[in-house]
Write a structure and sequence with these properties.
There is one protein chain. Helix 2 packs across helix 6 and helix 3 crosses helix 4. This protein has a five-stranded mixed sheet. Helices cover 45% and strands 15% of the residues. The radius of gyration is 18 Å and the shape is globular. With 213 residues, it is of the alpha/beta class. The N terminus is likely disordered. 43% of the residues are buried. Strand 1 and strand 2 form a beta hairpin.
C-alpha cells in the first residue's frame, strides 16, 4: 500500500518572528544558475510585509512545473511589497569566479528592492547557497527555499528569469539546445560542445570547457 506524503509548502513563520522583533522589511533571497556551463547567474529578492501577500502554490522552484513557476512569477511581482532581480553574465563569472558573481547579482537584486522602498532593508534571509553581505543584517539558511516563503518566492523569480534568458539565447545559438537544458552539462549539451565548440555565453572557467581550451 502506497503512503501519501502531503506536499510541503514554505511558510512565513521566520518572517513573522523577525517582524515581531521590529524588522519591518525582511527580504528573501535565492539564486539560480550556479552550476551550468553556460549563461548567467541570477539572484531573485522578494519583500513581503504580511502573510496576505503570499502567493499560493509557491515552493522551491525546482519542485514546481514550468507553468506553475511562470504563473507564480507574475503573481509574486503583483502581490509583494517589492522585488528585485540581479543578473551577472558568463564573462563576469569567468573574471571573478562564481562566488563573487553570485554576490554581485545579489547586491544588484537587493539594491533594486531598496530603490523601490527608498530605504535599506532591515534583514535579509537567504538560501544557504547565497553568500552573506557585510553591510546588512542577514541569515543564511540551509534548504531555505523549502521552508521559508520569501526565499522560495525569490527562487521562482530567479529560475524563471534565467530560463527566459536561456530560451532567448537558444534562438541566437540554436546548435546547443539551451532551451532544453538551460546550459547545464547534460550529454546533449556536451555533445554539442564537442561538435560545434563553445559560444560567447559559455563559462570558460568551468570544466570540462576549461581543460579543452
Amino acid at each position: 500500500m502506497l503512503t501519501y506524503i502531503p506536499m510541503k509548502y514554505p511558510d512565513t513563520k521566520l518572517e513573522e518572528k523577525l517582524w515581531q522583533k521590529g524588522f519591518r522589511y525582511v527580504l528573501g533571497v535565492d539564486e539560480a544558475g550556479r552550476g551550468p556551463l553556460a549563461g548567467p547567474v541570477v539572484v531573485g529578492a522578494v519583500l513581503i510585509e504580511n502573510p496576505k501577500q503570499v502567493v499560493e502554490n509557491v515552493r522551491d522552484s525546482k519542485k514546481m512545473t514550468k507553468k506553475q513557476r511562470e504563473q507564480a512569477f507574475v503573481e509574486i511581482q503583483e502581490k509583494s511589497t517589492a522585488f528585485g532581480i540581479g543578473i551577472v553574465d558568463a564573462k563576469e563569472i569567468d573574471r571573478v569566479g562564481i562566488k563573487e558573481a553570485v554576490k554581485e547579482a545579489m547586491i544588484l537584486a537587493v539594491s533594486e528592492v531598496e530603490k523601490k522602498i527608498k530605504k535599506k532593508v532591515d534583514y535579509i534571509i537567504s538560501d544557504g547557497a547565497v553568500y552573506l553581505l557585510d553591510d546588512h543584517k542577514m541569515m543564511s539558511i540551509s534548504r531555505g527555499d523549502l521552508n521559508h516563503y520569501s526565499i522560495a518566492a525569490a527562487s521562482v523569480l530567479a529560475k524563471v528569469t534565467r530560463d527566459m534568458i536561456m530560451e532567448e539565447y537558444s534562438k541566437k545559438y540554436p546548435n546547443y539546445g539551451f532551451e532544453k537544458h538551460m546550459g547545464y552539462g547534460t550529454k546533449v549539451h556536451l555533445d554539442a560542445i564537442s561538435k560545434h565548440g563553445i559560444c560567447d555565453i559559455h563559462r570558460k572557467s568551468y570544466e570540462p570547457i576549461k581543460s579543452s581550451l
